[in-house]
# Entry
Amino acid sequence: MPESGAAARDLLSLVLDAADRHGDAPALTGPPPRRGAFRGAGTAFRGTRQDGAGGASGRAGTAFRGTRQDERGTSGGIRRAFRGTRKDGCEGTSRGTGTAFRGTRPAEVTEPHAATEPAGVTLTYAQLGDRIRAVAARLTAAGFAPGQRMLFSVRPSPDSVVLALGVVAAGGTVVFVDPGVGPALFAARTELAAPGWAAAESVLYAAGRRPLRALARRRGVLLPDYARLPVRHVRAGRWLPGVPRNAVPLRSLLRPVPRRSVASDPGQDAVVVFTAGTTAAPKAVVHTRGSLGAALDVLSTRCALGPGTRVHTDQFLLGLPALVGGGHWSMPPYGLAPAARPDELARGLDGATHTFLVPADLAAVLDAVERGQVALPASLRQVLLGAAPVLPPLLRRAGAALPGVEFLAVYGMTEILPVAVATAAEKLAHPGPGDLVGTPLPGVRARVDGDGRLVVGGANLGHYLGEEPADEHTTGDLATLTDDGAIVLGGRATDMIIRGRTNIYPGLHEPAIAALPGVARAVLVGVPDAIGDDRVVLAVVAAALEPPGLADRVRAALPQVVDASALPDEIVLVDDMPVAGRTRKTDRAALRDRLARARR
# Structure
């Protein structure tokens, strides 16, 4: 009998009901344990995006909202914790996903009944439900109160999934926050979220303090000092220097407790994910237990996951529906780049039926398949694609190389996910112009406003933190609707650049680049490549009388002023920037076209 007794669209109730139904069936398998020194920690936290393959311009992700906690001097404490940021004041951007909810290495918990496989720790459904309830009970006993928010910087693992769902079961809200965005932006986002608690792995606490902080900085990673946050702490992993002595070990939260019920509450804020915004005005999306549950319902209309299926992904977008449906969710090694290691991806997919890839990763995997270096398993049925445009040439290659696999292009955004799903056949049949992303899924509404922007709504719609919920969301995409209601995108109305799994916001970096010696103007634009990814090009106008070699000097200086995830692929010197309008603002579209023509 469902423990909630109702609320078919309450995410947490759906997960716990599935845990009760499927008992000893495998639910969640973590990545292989990896032992690493600071180098691994540094790369793990270099600008990891928390919106899960998405972004404000409209690809994939999730979020949620909550009421601001009491002040308790939080703002001042947070500001003090982040004094001494970069000299240039430039905050980094976040790296993609999609994850959507990326975060830490599994906490070191081993119980007699937990089965350990070569791939990592596997939790059964019964264990999953028991641990979620245990975390909720022990957090409550430790003083965590309903309505509080917990900053969350824990990499994907069974324990991090349990912790996140346990926070929600305790009545709280998980705030997915990227420690790699730069201390100033991190501080601004943290102040907006007003957390009472923070969860991070021990190495992140250690790396935010001396001497590891200096080492991280030399490697291009600017990490916040988590220990100075005026909050209660939960640590994942062994205690390390820099971890607050009173931090609650995640291991202790997982100890069994007598079974407790968790009431259904679809209106409870469940998760907050940051999207676009600046240090002065950060922006975050709030999703409730109900909107997340509705998102799973919407996705299930095109991607059926149930007993006998196994999804191999670090994306909550696909992992949570598997848990709700009774499937098996397995996680790849944290930080795995399929484009660089298609062989490792193929090994992880052995026995899997579903996975998620960004188009750039799929292109690299297809290269390896076509060269005969990699063979994907015959078990694979569906590959979900998202986080960037999925273009016909890539789908034609995919269909030829993997004829037994169905490719689904998912369109959505942090504010509402998913909006539409298109099959490869549907996209290939579209005569153009524009990018067909599919008919709005059941329960999702779509229209085009007077400015040509796509406006969407539905039960899976979140709302912005600190703002009242709205019935619709105006996206950053220009679109038209076909006669049968399918959405066709005509381009992005915003300046955001999407490269692989990374959302890059030019306005965060251009002022610092333009301040470099010899630079008169600097503009970052994305020039689409053959697979729909954006190649990041930095166009620079040299100052008067600047000697030759400016491009090389700028390239050498960029790592000191721009986050590693936003470094351009190419630097081009131009005589001037195209402008438009009375204000003579830089015409980014014209610049993009000029650079694209120059590459032909």
Q: What stands out?
A: The longest helix spans residues 125-141. Residues 57 and 476 are 5 Å apart (CA to CA). Confidence is low (pLDDT under 50) at residues 1-8, 35-118. The longest strand covers residues 519-528.
